[in-house]
Amino acid sequence: MTSLHGCTALITGASSGLGAEMARQLAPHARALILVARRADRLEALKAELERSGVEIQCHAADLGDAAAVERVLEAVAKSGVKVDFLINNAGLGDHGLFEGSDWQRVQAMLDVNIKALTRLTHALLPGIIRSGRGAILNVSSIAGYLPMPKMAVYAASKAYVTSFTEALRGELRGTGVLVSALCPGPVETEFGSRAKRPGEDDALPAPDFLKRPVEQIVRDGLRGLERGRARTIPGLPLAVMMFLTALVPIFILRPFLGIGARNARKK
Length: 268
Known about the structure:
alpha/beta, Rossmann fold, 10 helices, 49% helix, 12% strand, globular
């Protein structure tokens, strides 16, 4: 990780899954890590694990769905004097099921975390990242952002925002020395799927095994893609090819197929 060596990285959603793995893979190369997530006990356990590599670590327990909590994190980081030059917006929430049956508080939390917190953290930290002359932003999006997805309508729309926002930032920051990339994984074995399920569902995110990738490989591909200057990284060749081909199909051809799952769910 030549361009990320000696970085100071702030990672959201760092208590498990992709976020925790990001911290593990960056720890041998980073100067400092700032870990942000809701569960303080998980953060402290990860800190104890990673401090053996000699990296300086801060932990901030915060619900990023709470705007005031986001501001408290930013204030604490500013007071610490640590200058963030690598922002990893990984925290995200999902929901699976017909929109009409969704719980509004859950929908609101999804919008607050996936869009508002990501945007606010980027807005607050970007000036310092630009001043560093060597910074980076990695936004964790999803292949769900490539298409409208019935039964995941709000989640897919939020990830479409993340991907579009990342592309726009990338254009604005060209020539500044700041790397900007979106990591767009497909199915992954983390707590995300179980948390996205609604009561009574067997599997919120069914997918064939050949499309799934280990967390370690997804993170490795995302960091490598960022360093190589890729705008987007879709981990795994089969999934990347599938999404490339899907992008070539006009939306009017796809529309009749998009609603099949929703119609079946309504029949049940």
